[in-house]
Each structure stands twice: as structure tokens, then as C-alpha cells.
């Protein structure tokens, strides 16, 4: 009996030790090269703007060649006591180009932003400032921020969270779920291409983080690298959109497989996102200019095939913000509005948000996260925020009104 009791206690202790070790080691998985490549394509589709997938694929492949390992953790598996951080690249049109010219004449050394050096420097500065180590990275937005977030996580030796602060790309800092649910972007840190480092200790609100970061970008030749939104695991679970990276992988895989089978990828994409085919046309006009750190475009498509005889207009502020079918509002932020090429990839325009005149474009859209549709979400990301004189109407209502026969 004594021996039996001894072994039983030992067995219980071993079980408890295993449970403790399991609690301290949340489930993290390593992403494969194919998943990463698919994710780059899917992130371009999620972006709601013209996006060039090829450079992001090249960047992630080079990172793999350089020996980087990319790990991912599900949002629900992030421990309460972890601290997450998000990459925050800020840029756009209308920068002070004379700053770039002067610094070139001065021969000021620059940091290697393409390899993520600026973001890592910002993360180290913020970690030192707040006195915490970061345990995971959360993607800020879709498109290029995806690869930047992955590389930051790899450089810090931590996983990226399968989630996103906004789900799509958005032009301004405050247009993210954390601010909507009461989790501020500050403290934040930004690093210029010359290594200047600025820490925002606190801000009146996320609008002010946007103002300050944008001013830094405009005064630094068009862009700064940064990190923001340090959050506990508990806060991350209420302030992050779950599953965004898994969706990106699925979108990329869907397009890849459709191409291999010679099938039209658009219906397959729509089935993944539960979306709508909005318009099929060619770009007749793209009036683009840079101002105040943003790229602004007014785009006109002329319908072809099932949309022959119709016109589609798109208003862009870095991203697609609102569209009109024959002069009637058809889709609007915060809902996703994407411009795809017939291959299913995002349109690779001549610049951020811009469209290539003559290109064949298929416009699609799908609903945003419900939190973006709250009063505060519509305040920061709805049409009136961008100066339009109409209220937000969900994309599914707009498509029902026009009795869209192409709705999935």
C-alpha cells in the first residue's frame, strides 16, 4: 500500500508538472513557405486598395533564405500576461521631398527599412521605455503590413497572432478596432529612415497619434517605421479581429488552386469572404495626387461584359473608400472594397491606391467586422469622416437595393 501511494503521488506530480508546462507554453505553429506565399496574395486581396503582391512574396522568400522562422499563434491561445505589439508603418503622398534631397547632399546614412530594421529599432525603443518585453506581434492592417509584421515577429523571436487590428488596409491610425473598444494606440514609437527615434508617451486620443505620426512621415520624406498598441493578452482578445491571417492564407490558396485548374477565381474568392461582385470594367480615368501624407485618387471605370453601358466611380484615400454605380452609392468604408485583376490577384497599380488606365478590373466587396459598424466605428471610418454628405449603409443593404444578381 505504501509503495502504491508513493507511485500514485509521483504520477499525480508528473501530471501536474505537464499541465503546468502546457499552461506556460501555448500552442504555436510554424508557417510553411507555401502558407506564407499564399498569405501574401491573400493579404493583397484583403487590403481594399491597389496592391503589388510580387514584392511581398519576394521579401518573405528572401527572409526564409536568410534563415528567419515564422510562427503563428491563435488569438484565443494568447496568454493573459503576454504583451503584444503591432507594426505601424506611416507614409503617403505630399511628403517634404526637399528633406530627402538635403539629407542626400549631407550623405546622412540610412537604416535598412526593407529588412525591417526601422521597425525593430522602434520596438526596442518602446520596450525599453515601457519596461516590458513583447511576446507576440499583431498585424496592423492588410497588404504590406503583413510581411512587415511577420518579419518583426521573427526578428523579435516571437509568434505573430492570427488576427488583425483592422482586417483590411486603412489610411489613418485611429481606424482600428482597439480604439473603437477603448484600447489606445499609445504609447508608440517611430523611427525615420535616418534612425531618428520618437516615442509618443501618451496622446489625447488615437486621432492625435495619427496627426503626430503623419507629421513625422511628411517631414521625413514620405514614411516612418513604428510600433504601437502594446496590449495584454486579455486586451488583445477583445481588440483584435481573429482569424485574419488564416483568411489570407485561404484566399491565396483559393486563387492559386483556381489558376491551376483553369477556373475563374472570382466566384471562389466571393465564397470565402461571403461577398459581392460589384462591377466589371476597364479604367478610363485615374486622377491621383499626394497631399498631407496621403495619396488621393478619383477613378472611373467603364463597364464591360455584363456591366457594359454602365459607369463605376471610386474615391481613394490610400485605400478604396467609396464607390458609385451610375452615380448611386454602391459600397463604402468601413466595408471591404477591392479592385482585382481577372487572375484574382489585387490590381497592381502604378502607386499606392492608384489604378492603371486601361486595366481590366473586377470590383468586389464584403462586410466589415461588426465593431466597425458601431457608432464609434462609423464615426472614425464611415463616409462622413471622409467628407461625404451621406450616411453609412452596409454593403449587403446596398446590394439588396440594387437587386444584385451576382451576390454570393
Give a brief description.
It contains 13 helices and 17 strands. By secondary structure, the protein is an alpha+beta fold. It is globular and about 60 Å long.
If you had to describe this structure to a student in words, what would you say it looks like?
By secondary structure, this protein is α+β, with helices and mostly antiparallel strands. The chain folds into 2 domains: 27-244, CV3147-like fold; 265-401, no CATH class. Helix content is 37%, strand content 24%. The chain has helices spanning 2-24, 33-46, 53-65, 97-106, 117-130, 144-156, 177-180, 206-218, 233-239, 244-260, 265-273, 375-381, 395-401, and strands at residues 29-30, 71-74, 83-87, 90-91, 136-139, 160-164, 188-191, 197-200, 223-232, 241-242, 276-291, 294-303, 311-317, 319-325, 328-332, 336-340, 360-366. Strands 1, 2, 3, 4, 5, 6, 7, 8, 9 and 10 form a 10-stranded mixed beta sheet that branches. Strands 15-14-13-12-11-17-16 form a 7-stranded antiparallel beta sheet. Strand 13 (311-317) and strand 14 (319-325) form a beta hairpin. The longest helix has 23 residues, at 2-24. Residues 1-22 have low confidence and may be disordered.
Primary descriptors:
ten-stranded mixed beta sheet; 408 residues; globular; CV3147-like fold; alpha+beta; 37% helix; 2 domains
What is the topology?
Blueprint: H1 2-24, E1 29-30, H2 33-46, H3 53-65, E2 71-74, E3 83-87, E4 90-91, H4 97-106, H5 117-130, E5 136-139, H6 144-156, E6 160-164, H7 177-180, E7 188-191, E8 197-200, H8 206-218, E9 223-232, H9 233-239, E10 241-242, H10 244-260, H11 265-273, E11 276-291, E12 294-303, E13 311-317, E14 319-325, E15 328-332, E16 336-340, E17 360-366, H12 375-381, H13 395-401
Parallel strand pairs: 2-6, 3-5, 5-6
Antiparallel strand pairs: 1-2, 3-9, 4-9, 6-10, 7-8, 7-9, 11-12, 11-17, 12-13, 13-14, 14-15, 16-17
Helix pairs in contact: 2-3, 2-10, 10-11
